[in-house]
């Protein structure tokens, strides 16, 4: 029995889950579906690549790999800086565009986010070209776990990183004043203003967190696969499927939804072929909307 698809599904689900957290936060607090979120994933990956190259030039070389991993401290530091950059980029996007559409109808805002998505993707392609690139081209030797399962040190490290980030987000939302304020704004923005919550500050925090997590997702894709301008766009449908499946507003739900989508896509490859993999996310999204529109952990308003 070959259960390799489970590992592939968990890895894909981790990437989708991190990105879906940003989608679910944006939707629950700002009340619109942000189609530009996929481009934040791409921009985060390219930002980490560029910063890693600059650090390598400053210190000489690309940095020694950490133990069995394919990357070193250069990429880790670059990833952290890129998360700040992508969070700032998301905030700038709000200041330039979405802030002026707060009172517009949902269709207008969604179309604006779609236009922003195309603009960001085209700009990224203009700067870096459409050719795929990589953080590191070295191949790793996978470890056998039995039942046909093989994993690499990078894969194990990135799954651990996903768990850490999701736990940190969960603690932020449940144990801090800012997190409680975010949940209050998600429930009722008008009442939140009445009780003294700075709603605009919460909106800014939401954009920064969503952008930072999108960057982490993009770096994971770059380490495991490759970096290209359309990488975020290709993940957009699975992101929304995971966010809706988990329940809008639920951080653990977004991760669980991502894992379900990732496992379903990976399991579909040996059954119906890789060319139909993208259709699985659409079918899951359709099924959730028909059977349980609030998602696994969502609540009816």
Plain-language structure description:
With 301 residues, the protein is mainly α. Helix content is 72%, strand content 2%. The chain has a two-stranded antiparallel ribbon with strand order 1-2. Helix 1 packs across helix 10. The radius of gyration is 19 Å and the shape is globular. The mean pLDDT is 87.
Tally of DSSP β-strands:
2
- Structurally, how many domains make up the residues? 1
Strand content: under 5%
The percent of residues in helical segments reads over 70%
In whole angstroms, the N-to-C terminal distance is 45 Å
Low-confidence stretches: none
Series of secondary-structure elements, N-terminal to C-terminal: HHHHEEHHHHHHH
Structural class call reads: mainly alpha
Question: What's the short version?
Answer:
The chain is mostly helical and about 300 residues long.
List keywords for this structure.
301 residues, mainly alpha, ABC transporter involved in vitamin B12 uptake, BtuC, two-stranded antiparallel sheet, 2 strands, globular
Fold blueprint:
Blueprint: H1 4-30, H2 37-59, H3 73-96, H4 106-128, E1 143-146, E2 149-151, H5 153-175, H6 177-187, H7 189-194, H8 199-224, H9 231-246, H10 251-272, H11 277-291
Antiparallel strand pairs: 1-2
Helix pairs in contact: 1-5, 1-6, 1-8, 1-9, 1-10, 2-3, 2-4, 2-8, 2-9, 3-8, 5-6, 5-8, 6-8, 9-10, 9-11, 10-11
């Amino acid at each position: 029995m070959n259960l390799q698809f489970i590992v592939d599904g968990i890895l894909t689900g981790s990437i989708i889950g991190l990105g879906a957290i940003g989608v679910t936060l944006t939707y629950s607090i700002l009340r619109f579906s942000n189609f530009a979120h996929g481009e934040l994933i791409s921009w985060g990956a390219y930002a980490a690549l560029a910063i890693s190259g600059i650090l390598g030039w400053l210190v000489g070389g690309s940095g020694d790999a950490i133990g069995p991993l394919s990357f070193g401290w250069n990429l880790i530091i670059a990833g952290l800086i890129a998360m700040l950059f992508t969070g700032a980029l998301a905030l700038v996007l709000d200041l330039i565009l979405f802030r002026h559409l707060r009172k517009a109808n949902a269709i207008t805002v969604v179309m604006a986010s779609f236009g922003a998505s195309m603009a960001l993707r085209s700009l990224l392609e203009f700067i870096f070209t459409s050719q795929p690139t990589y953080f590191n081209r070295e191949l790793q030797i996978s470890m056998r776990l039995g039942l046909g399962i093989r994993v690499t040190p990078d894969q194990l490290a990135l799954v651990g990183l996903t768990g850490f980030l999701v736990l940190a987000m969960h603690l932020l939302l449940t144990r801090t004043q800012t997190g409680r304020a975010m949940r209050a704004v998600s429930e009722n923005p008008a009442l939140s203003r009445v009780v003294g919550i700075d709603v605009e500050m919460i909106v800014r925090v939401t954009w920064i967190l969503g952008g930072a997590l999108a960057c982490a997702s993009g770096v994971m894709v770059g380490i495991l696969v490759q970096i290209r301008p359309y990488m975020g766009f290709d993940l957009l449908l699975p992101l929304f499927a995971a966010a809706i499946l988990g329940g809008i507003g639920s951080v653990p739900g977004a991760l669980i939804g991502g894992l379900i989508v990732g496992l379903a896509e990976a399991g579909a490859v040996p059954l119906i072929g890789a060319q139909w993999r993208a259709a699985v996310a659409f079918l899951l999204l359709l099924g959730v909307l028909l059977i349980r529109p609030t998602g696994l952990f969502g609540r009816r308003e």
